[in-house]
# Entry
Amino acid sequence: MINIDINGRILEVEPGTTILQAAQAAGISIPHLCYHEAFPPEGSCRMCLVQIEGYPKLELACSTQVKEGMKIMTESRVVNVARKSVLEFLLTEHPPDCPICDKAGECKLQDYFEEYGLFDSRYAEPKSRKQKKIEIGSNLLLDQERCILCTRCVRFLKHVTETGELGVLERGIQAEINIYPGNPVSNNYSGNLTEICPVGAITDRDFRFRTRAWFLEEKPSICPFCSRGCAITIAYHPGFARFDLPQRVYRIKARKNPNVNGNWICDIGRYGYPYMDNDRALEIRFPEFAGKTDWPQAVEIITENIMRLVHMKRTERIAVAASTFLSNEELYLIRKIFREDLGISNIYFVDPSEGSGDDLLLTSERTPNRRGAVELGFALDPPPAEGFKENIELLFVFGNGINEKVETALVQRIASIKMKFLFTAHKSSSADHFDGILPVSLVAEKSGSLTNSEGIVQSFVPALDPPGDSRPLWSILTELGRKMAIDFKTYRGYSDTTDILREISREIQFFRK
Amino acid sequence: MKKVDEKILTRDFGVENSHTLDVYRKQGGYEALSKALKKLKPEDILSEVKAAHLRGRGGAGFPAGMKWDFIPKDSEKPRYLCVNADEGEPGTFKDRYIMSHAPHLLIEGILLTCYCVGIKTAFIYIRGEYENVARRLESALEEAREAGLCGKAILGSDFECDMIVHRGAGAYICGEETALLESLEGKRGNPRLKPPFPAAVGLFQCPTVINNVETLSNIPSIVLQGGKWFSSRGIQEDGGTRIFGVSGFVAKPGIYELPVGTPLKDIIFTHAGGMLEGKTLKAVIPGGMSAPVLKADEIDVTMDCHCMLEADSMLGSSAVIVIDQDTSMLDVLRIMIKFYSHESCGQCTPCRIGTSWIYKIVQRMCRGKGRREEIDEISRLASNILGKTLCPMGDAAAMPILSIVAKFRGELEETIVERSQKAKIQ
# Structure
């Protein structure tokens, strides 16, 4: 460890740390635009210049490594003059688009102007006009006038995706970012470009002109689209419940998790969010029973159906079709209630078929918790191709509704079964084939944990309120367990998912780490 | 007394076919190489070069021996020599003469340097516009290869070295050493962030020496006659002779090889024949356009790195641009900043936007739409570029501008007023 002094504060830092890293760790902010922690320092924006005692010139905080006894000043007069002058240069050619710019409110250039600038324009010359709306990819638009040439986008495509679709063309004041003719940005990670652009130069068709950044609230969650389990941030409109807004979720952002996804997420996870708002199953429906039902009544009906077979000692006539969209806790409860308490062996999984993965983040498993199900002791058998056993008269489908195809395929095999219940988050065309439709929450709306393909167990908390009547499946299952009173003591003990996970880890070595 | 007419680099320029191997050899060429390979160890050459006090002739004036010594001794990677022949500094035209009149002098210098530093491959990065010069260099190289002076087993020894002539594509910035490396690697010619320095991480991530053409062309005579001899041609800590390229309003513009430390006055008034008839001296840019300007009454200086720094200017590439009384300094300023704004690579903010901003103001002034107070704006902008850019080009643009504004403010103001009155009449 070595000692340095930043603005009179003595800090102890690891050798090899840069001034910027040391300052950030100590909560001292140094403005920077081109530097991004995922890439080596670029040193081109010149915003992070700081003064070091004994050095003839100002030095870059982003690339200068600390030395023992270094005395650094980040707010001295010369530093502020330099910072202001660099800021002035950047703003000289920057259009005053803030009122119509999607980045406004989370734009670093705007923030730094508020913090260090606040000067009037001294620029009496005409601004260089450049292209305002270049389609650089199917989702992305580039505004060259807003661009400050930090080249974060170029470096992302060079170092992370290694696809290199963007480059710097021309030089000097004419320098601009662009794609090469006929070769747009087309990779599964393109959405990250919007996020790493420190200004509003690269915007995303999906988010463009839809709302203002400051109207949105953000909560952490985990992406359920593949078994990587990337950390995400869900940005939603908190006024959704109160106002008649077209949507609740406006975008998904990557959330840093060095152990899983680093700084990035893929486009499937980023742009797939409309499933959270579209076609949701909102009501508990039992077509046989006229009118609406509430949850206590629904649980009652289900319990009766199960208990009837229990009393007849015919629980082998019950079948379960689960999926690995479910959390560890929910799968554990299915195991406990149906396999252990009721002794059912007909437990199948209706997962979507494998997709193709890539070398970066996306895995071929298109559900978030296959590994968890395996560790919980499920064989993950699909329903028998020839149809369910003839004696089956009660079926529970714990679907998720994301994959309609899988559900349709299932429905073709269940016609003969007398009583069928579908737990789903989404409206489904197969709903008519079921005797009860029970709306459940998505990962974003419940708590629990998922086990990713590498075996990392990640807990999550609700980011959104469940819409309509929907409830988390784990709470419905807990209630069902209580209601059936086969093992009342255990089920009474669960007040939240952490209780369940604690029990899982007591029981299964894998979850103990 | 030093012998003023003693030439190291330009000695054979007058000899017919001086660029051919035969003539070069007749004049004693490749004797240094043969001496080195037979009698000298690489360390011996290094200590001679250090003793010669040979400073880089490209502009920065860094001691060559020290630069070679920075190459890490323990690296297993191959080492490279890059010869900076991207002579782009306005006013500078010395290297093209060396390469076209004495290409073998450069080749011998390169071979000796490679032998000294342990390099097997050298790249000569020559500016794109020097097409004929590049061709001459290529054919000289071919001659050398055929004569066993280049390639494997040079002069029967186990020393092997070859070189590649690479033509640039016309960007001034590629004369900056790290941009040169990027360009040579086939990338966009943007300067690199330093550290790491090229000596440690240079071409293709390998240890690399980068030297100017003139610097390397001095090596044969240092090897042949010794560092002490060479050093004594110049002044203390700054040895040898330099080729001064004199341009502008003088009677005899051209190149003059003179000892380091020759008085600037002598160069202009004795060697270059004084001012053109009817012209009086107003200002001198002493080291290529990036060097701060000297007023007519400030030229009592000697042309060496130290003295030029004392005079708040720099020796740079020792290109002396002579400006006469009838040349408007506002026009000088315009031409200057037009160049830098056009040649800025655009990578870092202050240079990209600052130079373009200043150019727009100066252009407006020249059209008669400027105001006197805007001179302050120019110096404010130039100071905001100075010392804040990624590579030395920002300083190269800011320094001469600041010097013109400081030294010729009265004239600039008058010209601005004059031109705006003229614009109003029209």
Notes: Residues 2-92 of chain A form a domain with the Ubiquitin-like (UB roll) fold (CATH 3.10.20.740).
